[in-house]
UniProtKB/TrEMBL annotation:
Residues 375-455 form the Tyrosine-protein kinase G-rich domain. The chain crosses the membrane at residues 41-60. The keyword Transmembrane applies. Pfam families: GNVR, Wzz. Residues 26-117 form the Polysaccharide chain length determinant N-terminal domain. This is Exopolysaccharide transport family protein. One of its GO terms (cellular component) is plasma membrane. It comes from Mesorhizobium ciceri. One of its GO terms (molecular function) is protein tyrosine kinase activity. It is a multi-pass membrane protein.
Amino acid sequence: MQSSLPMVPQQHSPDPARAGSYAASTVELGDLKRILVRRRFWIFGTVALLTLVALLYGLFTPALYSSAAEILIDPQDLQVVTNDVNPSRISPDGGITQVESQVSVVQSTGVLMRAIAATNLTQDPEFNGQGLLSRLLGSASAEGDRSVQTLDALRRRLAVKRADKVLVLDVIVTAKSADKAALLANAIAQAYLVDQASARAKMAKDASESITARLDEQRKRVQQAENAVEAYKSANNMVMAAGNLVSDQELTEINTQLATAQSRTAALKAQVDQMRRQSGTPDATSEAMRSAVISSLRAQEATLVDQVSQLGTELGPRHPSLIAAQQQLRDTRQLIARELGRIATATETDYERALANQQALEAKVAGMKSKSLDTDQASVRLRELQRDLEALRSVYSNYLQRAQETREQINVDSTNARIISNAMPALKKSWPPLPLLLLGAIFGGLGLGTGLALIAEYSSPTVLSSAQMQSAIDAPVLGVVPAKSDTGRRWWPFGGARAAASSQKTDAVVGLALRRMFSSGQRPADWPLVPSILVTSSPGEGAQRSRVARLLANAAASRGSRVLFIDANAGGGGQKDPQPGILDVLRGEYAFEAVSHYAAGSNVAVLGRGRSKAVFQEAHGIYFAQQMLARASRSFELVVIDGGALADNLNASPLVAMADEIVLVATLNATPMRDVTTTSQAVSVMGRLPTAALLVDEAA
């Protein structure tokens, strides 16, 4: 049977490769709310499970108590002696690095073993690995293994911290008993101080022993240097006195004497020369003027001159008294002359003697200088040996002094560290913190549940947004229809527009969808078939698909259009003896006018599914479908077909081939993407592809 009517223009050509796949599920920020609401049971279940686990853990876990001891460490140690074995130098960072290194020292094996020994911790089952579980398993540890286990257990229970910008270390120990925690914290703090003092004493002892071992060697070297100096002096006949050579001292003394003699000789020669120049008036010399004898005789001479002058005036020239006075005056002058002669002779004699002494000293100095030249050559090597000797003596002296100092430092503790706060037994347990665990379980459960919900969504993606749906079917999404009506009135049966209308939002979305489907202008103006819309969905979306199909019919009818509504849903026939419908029309048994009827008070004519008693050929179905749509154009402006789930409804294939628009209905955040793909593949197998989609939002 051949159709005389043209085929429906294909707006999309089937692409089996595209129809067999869909775009990967992408989650937008606005879709997270839908995912979390839909999979809320995952989140609430995870929160409840983690909260229960945290509660059980907090109730059945043995309580632990923490105590802290505080140690103040001053980077600048006590300056007990000037040359300390451990010099105190503050680093540019104020000693923070040095104090930070003490954190590791407190946790070192040496310090902890001291604390273990002081508290006999190896006998404590809580720390020595000999608890109830070990006894039940029958395991016993040797003494060495027990010490190692105790050390490891103590390290796990120990925390050493330093707050910012302070030089105080907090030694925190956690144990099942508050008293035990305080005891261990104080023991570790005390063990640290003892360890530091012991370490410094050992360093001082090692330094002292090392220096003392070098003293004998230094002493032998000094003796060898002294023997070398003395042997060299003896070999070169070099006698020392007061640290200098005797020959050098003699030469220095004779040089001094020679200088003195030369000065005296020059002075005497000047006196002699003066006397010789003043030979006419010898009494005018400086020696005569300085002579006490001359001065006395001059005084007597002056007295006698006065006496002679007076007597000559009073007694006359021949008077005996005058003559006697004149004789005394002549004798006095003779005495002055003899004294002046004696002075001149003595001066010349002193000059000659000084000159002879000077010449003798010069001869002696010349001889000693010749001898000193030979001694100076030997003194060069002697001074070198003496310098070596002084250097060795200085080193030996420093070694000896340092050995004494380090020996004294063994018993001196220069560490500037002290316990400023002893640990006290805690009043509250530190573990398990039940409120914190519950809070962490709640927030952790929310995070984990959210992650599981997103993983579940990714493993089985659903339709999340219009963009995702459009990418999956390569067709536009005409709108999002709210799942519920604001008025609470039913959309079925096709009553009046008022009774059938949904909310204003739903009415607006459906109306715009109708306009968009037929505003492309792809239908020719003289096209003989009535405009038709086939609505399909996945098998699980039957209720929403039927609702959307009826909303489309009602929306068109409410705007004055006459609508033919065809219910081709495979699951719609529930009657025992169904009335004739679309299947009968497609088999050519009935005309659609004979089996359709108008709904009361509506512009919508309804054509049911009919009887599926016989299977018809697809070519016959397409022919009768063309005939039906051509004849329907005389009475109707729109045909809306509820095609059911096309993957299960092959009888709707002729309607798929003849429909203008194939609208795929899906529910946001509920319809799996695999169902969308399956439906799209079914449409593709029937020779078409979906031309549009309408989404239903259950959250709106």
